[in-house]
């Protein structure tokens, strides 16, 4: 389930970051690739549809917890956690996007 959590986090964060129009070009491209990969997996499986993905993502701004639940169910049903490309890109996206205001980074060097 850890893989699904990474994918869900990336999709929800990308939706939120996209609304603020502050994503860098490379991050936008990676998010578009994530969505395209999920859409491709949805096409291959009868358990999901691209419409379900769009609906879940559309609720992310107003109700991120609901979006996370719906996306988790959808992605688990299509086996998205077993898609290494999708998981890898999700982890990369999650490392490159910070969502929220007044973020702080602390570095400790030894």
What would the keywords be for this entry?
110 residues, single chain, mainly alpha
What is the structural class?
mainly alpha
Number of DSSP helical runs: 5
Average residue pLDDT: 81
| Cα separation of the termini | 34 Å
In terms of DSSP E residues, the strand content is under 5%
Shape: globular
Biggest sheet descriptor: none
The rounded Rg comes to 14 Å
In total, the number of strands is 0
> Regions with pLDDT < 50 over 5+ consecutive residues?
none
Structure, described:
With 110 residues, the chain is mostly helical. The chain has one domain. The protein contains five helices and no strands. Helix 1 (2-20) packs across helix 2 (25-44), helix 1 crosses helix 4 and helix 1 (2-20) crosses helix 5. The longest helix is centred in the N-terminal third of the chain and has 20 residues, at 25-44. The mean pLDDT is 81.
């Amino acid at each position: 389930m850890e893989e699904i959590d990474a994918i869900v986090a990336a999709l929800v964060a990308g939706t939120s970051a996209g609304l603020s129009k502050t994503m860098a070009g490379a991050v936008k491209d990676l998010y578009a690739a994530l969505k395209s990969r999920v859409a491709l997996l949805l096409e291959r499986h009868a358990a999901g549809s691209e419409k379900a993905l769009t609906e879940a993502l559309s609720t992310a701004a107003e109700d991120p917890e609901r979006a996370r639940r719906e996306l988790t169910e959808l992605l688990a049903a299509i086996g998205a956690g077993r898609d290494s490309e999708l998981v890898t890109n999700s982890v990369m996206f999650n490392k490159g996007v910070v969502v929220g205001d007044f973020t702080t980074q602390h570095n400790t060097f030894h």
